[in-house]
Amino acid sequence: MTVEGAAGEAYEGVLLEEPTTADLRAKVTQAWREFASALAAVLPGLQPGSYVDLTLDPTASGTGTAVYSVSIRVLEDGVVEALAVGNAALPQEFRMDRAAVADLVALGWSPPGVLAGSGDSFGLRSSQDKATQLATVVSRTLRDVYGAPHPAFLVYLVHDDEDEPIDASPLGTARHEPSIDLDDLDALGDGTALDRALAATAEDLVPLEDRVRTVVATMSKTTIDQLQVDADGDIGIRAGSAMVFVRVRDNPPLVDVFSPILTEVEPTEQLYVKLSELTNRMPIGRLYCAQDTVWASIPVFGRNFQSVHLMLAVQVMTGLADELDDRLHGEFGGKRFFGEGDKPAAPKEKGGDDGHRPGMYL
Questions:
Q1: How far is the C-alpha of 220 from the C-alpha of 161, rounded, in Å?
Q2: Is 217 helix (H, G, I), strand (E, B) or coil?
Q3: Is 64 helix (H, G, I), strand (E, B) or coil?
Q4: Is the pLDDT of residue 21 over 70?
Q5: Measuring CA to CA, how many Å separate 19 from each of 25, 34, 38, 117, 172?
Q6: What are the tens digits of pLDDT across the range 224-239?
Q7: Which residues form the TY-Chap central domain (predicted)?
Q8: How much is the pTM?
Q9: Is there a smaller number of Cβ atoms within 10 Å at the N or the C end of the chain?
Q10: Which pLDDT tens digit goes with each residue over 256-306?
């Protein structure tokens, strides 16, 4: 399917819907208009082999390990292909329902596997001379389907086949992922500018996993070799009766600080309401229930990694997990990680695994 199809024609020339409510909504709509216009202006000037990667920042949006992204690639003869993340790449609790999938198809996206090379992603083929329509579809996908509340929640990178950055005009209020060339260091001089440059460059020289382990070891006042690391590479940190794990994900770069607050708990409406109320009061992170396990999660964006962000996430999670497992256990039952003698809720057949391996901890 192409943007030139019926769905694409329906959106031609219309960037976003007009607001019908308060002034705040009008400002948000205007921000999306500006983002779409900027994207439409950038695409025609890109050479073959260029990419525009757009990602909903999970640390800002609260989507945890669910990373919603759209990647645009410029091919020969002005052809443009775009890929939008599909359910296969999303955690179970964040997968799109049938209505959302239908919305993607209505916007012009082909289902995963239909467009050659799309794999598990939704695919779309257009051309540089139809950049306005393509930018409209991408904007509506990020806003209406993936739920990005504002373009400021987006992180973007324009690069070539070798992942070298390409200079491009700003995409509205979306945040650019900065990079630095080692050859430019000599021009920066001494002082804080050079320090920042070296720190940014370290992202390419030192793997994210090594930097994360260094931070956790420092906080734990131990060495990297003495960290408690399981077979999956997750770092374990005991917090009273709770256990906190630090997991590094490669694509996209993300550090997830999470804890199985309770296992073998019976999901009820009261539990979901309680978790929603607690999440709304948390400064960062979220609480959710998957199958029979209550999880707490605080994601840290891996690109432009800042050790202070990980330190804050670990500090918050260790205190939160140790307090909440006791409080929620007293109200809803289940089993704490180190809660000897805890009696689980009524037994039930376990469902699938959402990636955190519930039930294997105890």
A1: 40
A2: helix
A3: coil
A4: no
A5: 6, 15, 20, 37, 19
A6: 888 888 877 889 888 8
A7: 209-339
A8: 0.49
A9: C
A10: 999 999 999 998 999 999 998 888 887 678 899 888 899 999 888 887 788
- Whether 29 and 161 have beta carbons less than 8 Å apart is answered as no
Q: Bridge-partner residues for 79, per DSSP?
A: 127
Q: For position 223, what pLDDT does the model report?
A: 82
Tokens of 222: 């131990």
Query: In this structure, what DSSP letter does residue 284 have?
Result: S
Amino acid at 92: Q
Rounded mean pLDDT of 200-212? 70
Beta strands in 57-143 (DSSP E): 69-74, 79-84, 122-127
Reduce the DSSP state of residue 73 to 3 states and report it.
strand
Read off the amino acid at residue 216: V
Helix (H, G, I), strand (E, B), or coil: what is residue 360? coil
- The neighbour count for residue 172, using CB atoms within 10 Å, is 21
- Segment 189-197 shows an average pLDDT of 41
CB 264 within 8 A of CB 279: no
Alpha helical stretches, state H, the chain: 6-11, 23-42, 58-61, 98-107, 131-140, 192-205, 208-219, 269-281, 307-332
Chain centroid offset of residue 186 CA: 35
Contact 273, 304 (CB under 8 A): no
Neighbours of 239 (CB within 10 A): 19
Question: Residue 236 corresponds to which tokens in the numbers above?
Answer: 């374990």
Average pLDDT, the chain: 78
Are the C-beta atoms of residues 117 and 90 closer than 8 Å to each other?
A: no
